[in-house]
Design goal:
The chain is mostly helical. Helix content is 57%, strand content 0%. It is built from 4 helices and no strands. Helix 1 packs parallel to helix 4 and helix 2 crosses helix 3.
Length: 75
């Protein structure tokens, strides 16, 4: 779970960097609070669900595809 959140957060940071968006400009563009982008940049992800991070990426114009595999644990 933590790894998935970290990967999503890294992608959000990449989009912000690639588009030279400050946290304030990202807030204006997405409607997501500036403080949330600050938390993401600081990798303080405890308050975020995977769904919330996916939603933020969507508001940044990204399409997210998740793949989950479930299998029995090895004995």
């Amino acid at each position: 779970m933590r790894q998935a959140k970290a990967l999503l957060a890294a992608q959000i940071i990449k989009v912000l960097d690639d588009e030279s968006l400050s946290t304030r400009r990202a807030e204006a563009r997405t409607g997501v609070a500036h403080s949330e982008f600050v938390r993401i940049r600081n990798v303080n992800l405890a308050r975020f669900t995977i769904d919330r991070l996916v939603t933020i990426l969507g508001r940044l114009g990204q399409e997210v595809e998740l793949s989950i595999k479930i299998r029995p644990r090895a004995a």
